[in-house]
Amino acid sequence: MKRILVKEVYKPHGTASVMLPEDTLLEDVIARFAHEPVLRGIFLVDSRQRLAGVITRMSLMKWVHFQLFGGRRTKTASPWEVFRFVSAAKAKDLSSRDWNSLAVRETDSLQTALERMIDHNEGVVPVIDTEGKILGDLRLPEVLLKALEVGKQATP
Questions:
Q1: HSE on the CB side for 43, CA within 13 Å?
Q2: Does position 1 have pLDDT exceeding 60, yes or no?
Q3: Residue at 126 is within a domain
Q4: How many structural domains compose the chain?
Q5: Do the Cβ atoms of 92 and 52 come closer than 8 Å?
Q6: Looking at residue 115, which CATH number applies to its domain?
Q7: For residue 124, with 0-12 CB atoms within 10 Å meaning exposed, 13-18 middle and 19 or more buried, which class applies?
Q8: pLDDT at 107
Q9: Torsion-angle region of 4 (φ positive above 0: left; ψ -120 to 50: alpha; else: beta)
Q10: Distance of alpha carbon 74 from alpha carbon 89, whole angstroms
């Protein structure tokens, strides 16, 4: 099977995610997510426009749980996570700490990208250049369409 690269599949400056400064108020991030149902990811950038973090849907769900219910019954929350969710004021406070393991480059294989999506339970991943600047996002629908295309090519 031919090796498929991320650059063959993703769309530069995708529409499933948005880039925001890492110091954006968390309230503004929450409102943006709430008012834009098609939004799947928030990629945070530093002052040099490099990827500085990712706010995942799971992070937002945990934040809501802590805000509304004090985090009760949260089986996987460490004391550090509890503090992080309770005291978050800016976007970077809610950012996933392992965002770098989620990002992919255009030259990465689609298999690597899909495995990262699965490992992080995310339907969108940031695509970055060698300097860490965001080029766009790779979304599950794009991967699905590529799978259909490859399947049709394999059918005689």
A1: 28
A2: no
A3: yes
A4: 1
A5: yes
A6: 3.10.580.10
A7: buried
A8: 96
A9: beta
A10: 21
Which of 19-28, 60-69, 115-124 has the largest mean confidence? 19-28
CA distances from 38 to 74, 109, 139 (A): 27, 26, 12
Whole-angstrom distance, CA of residue 123 vs CA of residue 89:
26
What is the span of the domain harbouring residue 84? 6-154
Which residues are CB-neighbours of 13 under 8 A, at least 6 positions away? 135, 136
Q: What tokens were used for 94?
A: 């809610």
Token pair of 18 as six digits: 């948005």
CA-based nearest residue to 50, from 126, 140, 107: 126
CA dihedral for 34, 91, 56, 123, sign (positive or negative): positive
Per-residue pLDDT tens for 74-106? 566 677 777 777 788 999 998 876 777 889 999
Query: Which token pair is 58?
Result: 């799971």
How far apart CA 56 and CA 41 sit, in angstroms, is 6
